[in-house]
Amino acid sequence: MGTTRWFFEPGHTGAEFRARHMMVTYVRGQLKNVRGSLEVDPDEPENARVEAVADASEVYTGQEQRDAHLRSADFFDCEHHPAWTFTGTRVHQASATEFEVTGDLTIRGVTRPVTFDVTYLGQWDTPWWEDGRDAGPRRRAGFTATTRIDRRDFGVSWNDVVDRGGVVVSDMIDVTVDVEAVLESGTAPA
Which tops the pLDDT comparison, 136 or 147? Predict the structure, then answer.
């Protein structure tokens, strides 16, 4: 069939992370302005290439003081490292809709290998608006990718203790990325 090229639509693509807070609950944060690309031959998905960039300087948790703390040198150090990046280096197809995508994740200027469990959600031809008119249809595909990282591996090590040996923020962080990819003009639909 040949290689298809897709771009991540930033308005419908986002990343979320969650950490245990005060030993009792989870606090979630969102990274918007996620941009990326996917090149894949449906007949050879193990050769797919994926890249993504998330704007960490726009982190949102619903609490302004916490957001400012996350942008500070205690956590993401957005002044020096405003983005999280991911470059996929290997794909393993586990089923018709399940994949493992291994690659290099960079947070706070530190790059480590991680594996995302990716679920392919399907494709659909949809309207595509340009200059106030529907220039569609355009093919869209959906994916959800999840992983768990140890934030200390990326130099994100700030913490404080609470009673009985507990901590304010867990070391293990769950990351979820929801992707809406749009087929680039001139490439065959998958």
Answer: 147
